[in-house]
């Protein structure tokens, strides 16, 4: 999660919503990393998770991320949760809960829907306070400025 937080800080520094993500292979090696970049790229899919999963797939040379762990500072939205299922991610680990848009247990629970053909393990609340604090600071500064 510390590495994902570094990615979130990179987003913060360039004015993007500070969410960061990394993908680890089965042995715990970093194979993908990313942070939100929707503003810079004008890409609605530019969420940290999507960027990190694309990076990991490129590293592996395959779209299947079986046995991999997606670590993200904020609970994934429906798009990112769905992409993690489609990529066959083995585990989703996240920090702060997203009560307004989270799709890994709070608002929806896409990844554990029994109707889907793949259900990653979920570990929630890892370093949640640190992850939430960065988001709180970002939005507080936006309201003041």
UniProtKB/TrEMBL annotation:
EC number: 3.5.4.33
Catalytic activity as recorded in UniProt: adenosine(34) in tRNA + H2O + H(+) = inosine(34) in tRNA + NH4(+)
InterPro entries named in the record: CMP_dCMP_dom, Cytidine_deaminase-like, MafB19-deam, tRNA_aden_deaminase
Keyword terms, alphabetized: Hydrolase, Metal-binding, tRNA processing, Zinc
Cofactor note: Binds 1 zinc ion per subunit.
CDD domains reported in the protein's UniProt record: nucleoside_deaminase (cd01285)
Positions with a binding annotation for Zn(2+): 47, 77, 80
Function: Catalyzes the deamination of adenosine to inosine at the wobble position 34 of tRNA(Arg2).
Name of this chain's protein: tRNA-specific adenosine deaminase
Organism of this sequence: Actinomadura rubrisoli
Gene symbol of the encoding locus: tadA
